[in-house]
Specification:
The complex is a heterodimer of chains A (108) and B (484). Chain A contains 4 helices and no strands. Chain A has 108 residues and is an all-alpha fold. In chain A, helix 2 runs antiparallel to helix 4 and helix 3 packs across helix 4. The termini of chain A are far apart. Chain B has 3 domains: 96 residues, no CATH class; 203 residues, no CATH class; 165 residues, Rossmann fold (3-Layer(aba) Sandwich), CATH 3.40.50. Chain B is built from 19 helices and 6 strands. A 6-stranded parallel beta sheet of chain B has the order 3-2-1-4-5-6. In chain B, helix 16 links the parallel strand 2 and strand 3. The longest helix of chain B is centred in the N-terminal third of the chain and has 29 residues. The chains are: A mainly alpha (108), B alpha/beta (484).
Chain lengths: 108, 484
C-alpha cells in the first residue's frame, strides 16, 4: 500500500461518498421525493450494524458477559429495526401507488 | 449441510465481500428513484442490501450456537426477539399510516435514527473496549481523535432526535405555536459555544461526567433550533432533519471507523441536503437562514406590509362552479395542503374523471413546497390513482396558465400569491409562484378567507376573474360533483 494514513483514507472515502450522493440524488425526479426521503431514512438506519455486532456477539469473544453497553445497543437495535422495516415498507407502499394507472378506477 | 451453510455464512459475513456489495446496492436504490419505472426495483435492491448487512453478524454469531452453551447465548436470542418485535411494529406503522400523516411519520423515523445514534454513542462511552476502540478493558480512556468523533456523533444524533421529535409534534398538531423570546440568537450561540468547549474538554478527559452535559446541551440545542420554526418552513425542516439523520449515522461511523456507516451516512446526508436546498429555492429562503434556526420565518410575517383596501370577494356556489368547469376545455388543478387535510384527493379524481368524460383536458400543477414535505402532493395524487403523466412540476407548467380556461386551486394559498412577484415588501417576495391569475377563470376552494401560513393576504381573491368556494375541500368538491 501507499503510505496513506487511515484518517486520510476515511476522509477520502467520506468526500467521495458525498459527491456520489450528490450526483445520484440530483437525478431523482421531483415526483419521487417522498419515497426518496423514506428510503434514505431506512438506509440511514444501517447504524444497526454497529449495535448488532455488540448484541449478538462481542468482537472480543466474551459471549456470556452482559454489560451496560450490550443493553444500550439492544435498545438501538430495536429503534433502528422499526425504522428499517417501516422505511422500506412505506417506500414500497408509496411506489405501488405511483404504479397503479388508469386500469382500476374507483377502488383503492 | 450445516457445515456448508456455516462456511457460506462466514464468507458472506466477511467485511471484504459484504461491504462493496451492500454499498453498491444502496447507491442503486437511490439511482432507481430517477424514474417511477425503476423505483420499485431500486427499493428491492435496498432491502437486499440491508438484509445482507443485518444477516452477516447474525450468521457469524449463529455459528457459535454450535459450540456454545445455550445459556451463554441468551443475549443472542434476546436480539432476535427484538428484531422480530421491532420489525413487526415498523411493518404495522408503515401499513396503517395515512398519506396525509406522512410528514410527521417521517419526522418520527428521523428521530429514531437520532435516538439510536445516541444510544450507540452512550454504549461506546460506557465500554470502548466492546467496540474494539481500545486495546484492553483495563485501558479506560479513548484516544483524542476517537473521543472527538464520538462527541460529534453524539451531538448530531441528539440534535436530530430532539429536533425531529419537535418537528413531528408540530406537524401532528400536538405542539402548537412557536417559541419566540428576546435574545434567542444569543442563547443559541452561547449554548453552541459551551458545547464546543465541552467537546474540547472531552477529548482530553473522555469520562461520563463530561459526556452527559454534552448530551444534555445537544438535546436542548435541537429543541431550541426547531421550536421557533413556523409551519410554512416545515418542508425545509423535514428534509433538513433527513439530512441530519444521515450525518448522525456518518458520525457514528467515524467513531467506530466503520466505512459502511460513513458512506451510507454521507449518501443520506447529501440527499437530505439537496432536498433542503430545493425546498429553500421553492420558498426563496436561504439555506443558511433555515439551518441557523429559521430566524427569518418567525419575524417576517409580523412586518407584512399588505394593508391595501380589500376589494370584494366573489363567492360562488357548487352549481356555478360545475357549469364553469363543464364549459372549459382545459383545466389545471393546483393542489395544496388543504387538499391533504380534508383528504379531498379522491373526490378530486372523481371530478377530474367526470370532466375528462366531457372532453375537458385536466392537468395538475405542483409547487415544490405545496405539501408539508418534498413530494407530498405527488404521493397524495398517486394515492387517488391520478395518472402520473397528468401531474406536472410548477416550472414545467407555469407558462400554460395563460392559455388555460379554468384553474382550480384546492386548498393552496401562498404558492399562488402574486405578491411574490409584484410587492417587494411582502415577506414572500421573490418566491417562485404559480401564475394562476393569468388563466381566464380561477376557482379557489378554501376553508376561509384567512391568510395562509406565511400570514399574508392574497390579492388574487379580489380579482375580477376569481371565484371563491368556501368550505372544506372534500365537501366542496363533492357538491360540485353532484351538480354535474
Amino acid at each position: 500500500m501507499m503510505d496513506f494514513g487511515t484518517g486520510a483514507m476515511i476522509a477520502t472515502i467520506f468526500t467521495l461518498s458525498c459527491f456520489t450522493g450528490y450526483c445520484v440524488v440530483l437525478r431523482v425526479t421531483p415526483a419521487l421525493h417522498a419515497p426518496l426521503m423514506s428510503v434514505t431514512n431506512a438506509i440511514s438506519s444501517v447504524i444497526i450494524i454497529a449495535a448488532l455486532q455488540v448484541t449478538v456477539y462481542s468482537a472480543h469473544g466474551e459471549f456470556g458477559e452482559v454489560t451496560t453497553a450490550r443493553w444500550l445497543c439492544l435498545v438501538a437495535v430495536f429503534l433502528t429495526i422499526i425504522n428499517i422495516v417501516g422505511g422500506f415498507m412505506l417506500t414500497k407502499r408509496m411506489l405501488s401507488m405511483f404504479e397503479t394507472k388508469k386500469k382500476k378506477p374507483g377502488n383503492d | 449441510m450445516i457445515s456448508f451453510l456455516v462456511h457460506a455464512a462466514c464468507f458472506c459475513g466477511q467485511v471484504t465481500t459484504q461491504l462493496p456489495v451492500a454499498l453498491s446496492l444502496f447507491i442503486l436504490t437511490l439511482r432507481g428513484l430517477s424514474s417511477a419505472k425503476t423505483a420499485n426495483r431500486g427499493n428491492l435492491l435496498g432491502m437486499a442490501g440491508m438484509l445482507l448487512v443485518i444477516a452477516a453478524p447474525i450468521l457469524m454469531a449463529s455459528r457459535n450456537l454450535l459450540f456454545t452453551k445455550p445459556s451463554q447465548m441468551y443475549f443472542f436470542y434476546l436480539t432476535m426477539c427484538t428484531l422480530v418485535c421491532g420489525g413487526f411494529i415498523g411493518y404495522r406503522v408503515a401499513k396503517k399510516v395515512s398519506m396525509t400523516a406522512l410528514p410527521q411519520l417521517l419526522a418520527t423515523f428521523h428521530s429514531l435514527v437520532g435516538l439510536a445514534a445516541i444510544f450507540i454513542a452512550w454504549a461506546v462511552q460506557t465500554s470502548p473496549y466492546t467496540f474494539g476502540l481500545i486495546g484492553s478493558p483495563e485501558e479506560y480512556f479513548l484516544s483524542e481523535i476517537n473521543a472527538l468523533e464520538l462527541a460529534i456523533g453524539t451531538v448530531v444524533g441528539a440534535i436530530t432526535f430532539a429536533g425531529s421529535l419537535i418537528a413531528a409534534g408540530k406537524l401532528h398538531g400536538i405542539i402548537k405555536g412557536t417559541l419566540s423570546y428576546k435574545g434567542r440568537k444569543g442563547v443559541t450561540l452561547t449554548l453552541a459555544l459551551i458545547l464546543v468547549l465541552l467537546i474540547a474538554f472531552y477529548t482530553i478527559c473522555p469520562c461520563t461526567h463530561v459526556f452527559c452535559p454534552i448530551l444534555a446541551i445537544s438535546l436542548m440545542l435541537g429543541y431550541l433550533l426547531i421550536m421557533p420554526v413556523g409551519g410554512a418552513d416545515m418542508p425545509v425542516i423535514v428534509s433538513m432533519l433527513n439530512s441530519y439523520s444521515g450525518w448522525a449515522a456518518a458520525g457514528i461511523g467515524f467513531t467506530l471507523n466503520n466505512i459502511l456507516l460513513i458512506v451510507v451516512g454521507a449518501l443520506v446526508g447529501m440527499s437530505g441536503a439537496i432536498l433542503s436546498s430545493i425546498m429553500c429555492k421553492g420558498m426563496n429562503r436561504s439555506i443558511r437562514s433555515v439551518i441557523f434556526g429559521g430566524a427569518g420565518a418567525t419575524t417576517a410575517p409580523t412586518c407584512s406590509g399588505t394593508t391595501q383596501p380589500k376589494g370584494n370577494v366573489k363567492l360562488c356556489s357548487g352549481e356555478d362552479a360545475a357549469i364553469i368547469l363543464k364549459n372549459a376545455s382545459t383545466v389545471i388543478v393546483v393542489p395544496g395542503y388543504g387538499m391533504a387535510v380534508s383528504q379531498a384527493q379522491h373526490a378530486l379524481r372523481e371530478l377530474a374523471e367526470a370532466l375528462q368524460n366531457d372532453d375537458v383536458t385536466v392537468k395538475y400543477a405542483i409547487h415544490p413546497v405545496a405539501g408539508r414535505m418534498p413530494g407530498h402532493m405527488n404521493v397524495l395524487l398517486a394515492e387517488a390513482n391520478i395518472p402520473y403523466e397528468d401531474v406536472f412540476e410548477g416550472g414545467e407548467i407555469n407558462r400554460e396558465f395563460s392559455t388555460t380556461d379554468v384553474v382550480l386551486v384546492v386548498g393552496a394559498n401562498d404558492i399562488t400569491n402574486p405578491a411574490a412577484k409584484t410587492d417587494p415588501t411582502s415577506p414572500i417576495y421573490g418566491m417562485p409562484v404559480l401564475d394562476v391569475g393569468n388563466a381566464k377563470t380561477v376557482l379557489f376552494i378554501k376553508r376561509s378567507l384567512a391568510a395562509g401560513y406565511a400570514g399574508i393576504d392574497n390579492d388574487l381573491f379580489y380579482k375580477e376573474n376569481t371565484m371563491m368556494l368556501l368550505g372544506d375541500a372534500k365537501k366542496v368538491l363533492e357538491t360540485v360533483l353532484r351538480s354535474f
